[in-house]
Design goal:
Tetracycline Repressor, domain 2, flat, disordered N terminus, 2 domains, 12 helices, mainly alpha, single chain
Length: about 325
């Protein structure tokens, strides 16, 4: 794509939205909110929640910008990313680097001072994994998708630690839900754009799997893993029976779409699996919120919590 072919009428807000990957950052915000709300118990500290979400959003935005700085040459080779601000020339690499670093540092400092050190540590781990491990691995090994699912699954756990001050099994169950959801979601996208990814030099499973058997197996296997993991919030007592019913129905439906994709590897079935994934996640997040068990203590009986609360009153630390 030549510079003349790239439309240049986008405004500053639109360019910034693309740089921070606004839709992805919104998903980070929503999952962080859900994790915080579930960890907060019967009473939600609204100001602490705002601090947690704001700091996490800054970290996610900074990571998105730095990811694009590192991948700008490769983005220019793909039709779906060639019009991003960096490859299209709307933003210089130095300006984007400065913005990405500023957002990242601001977010981590905000989490450290306004939330608690554990959440800041998780934020730093998420950022480092996404920018410095997942991003370069995309050009080295097909295992990058598995690694990339880790930073994508950490925001709800960050929300949990922001509300509780510690790590516990319910928080990890939210991590598991996001982790397993991403893998069939990624397989559908990778199959749809396998030629684009291969042309840009990204090592995706779909690019080394011309018949699609391994890609299909991954989607099916992880959709079953998702269905199992989705039961843990109920088994751990943080949600009720309505959530359980929806989790089972949605899990079977999602797995059915993964099977359909696996048996008929076509763009149509890949889009079907992708659509199912973007329906499934908001539905499950909504049910987690709607069917929260407010009578359950934040620290269930007999369940270890790693990381002590940071003030003597038992509330999550806030500076």
């Amino acid at each position: 794509m030549t510079a003349d072919a790239v439309p240049r009428e986008k405004g500053a807000v639109s360019v910034l939205s693309e740089l921070i990957k606004a839709r992805l950052t919104l998903l980070v915000v929503l999952t962080t909110l859900v994790g915080f709300y579930l960890g907060a118990g019967p009473v939600v500290d609204g100001m602490l929640m705002v601090h947690a979400v704001f700091g996490t959003a800054l970290v996610a935005s900074g990571a998105a910008v730095l990811n694009q700085v590192l991948e700008r040459q490769y983005d220019a080779r793909m039709r779906r990313t060639a019009d991003r601000p960096l490859p299209s020339g709307r933003v210089t690499p130095n300006s984007a680097l400065l913005l990405g670093v500023a957002l990242s540092v601001a977010g981590l400092v905000w989490l450290l001072l306004a939330v608690n050190p554990l959440t800041a540590l998780l934020g730093a781990s998420t950022h480092a994994c996404y920018v410095f491990i997942y991003t370069p691995l995309k050009r080295i090994t097909v295992l990058n998708t598995l690694v990339g699912a880790v930073p994508g699954a950490l925001p709800p756990l960050m929300g949990w630690t922001a509300a509780t001050g510690g790590l516990a099994a319910p928080g990890w169950s939210l991590f598991g839900l996001l982790f397993f959801w991403q893998l069939p979601h990624f397989m559908a996208i990778a199959w749809l754009y396998r030629e684009d990814y291969a042309g840009a030099g990204f090592k995706m499973l779909s690019g080394v799997d011309p018949k699609g058997h391994r890609t299909a197996a991954s989607a099916i296997r992880n959709s079953f893993g998702l269905m199992v993991v989705s039961l843990f919030p109920f088994l751990l007592g943080i949600v009720g029976h309505w959530y359980l019913a929806v989790a089972l129905l949605a899990g079977f439906g999602f797995s059915a779409m993964a099977f359909r994709f696996g048996h008929h590897l076509t763009p149509r079935t890949a889009r079907g699996l992708f659509l199912a994934s973007i329906i499934y996640l908001p539905l499950m997040l909504g049910m987690l919120v709607a069917d929260k068990n407010t009578k359950k203590l934040t620290k269930p009986s007999g369940m270890p919590v790693i990381g002590a609360r940071l003030n003597s009153g038992g509330d999550a630390h806030q500076c």
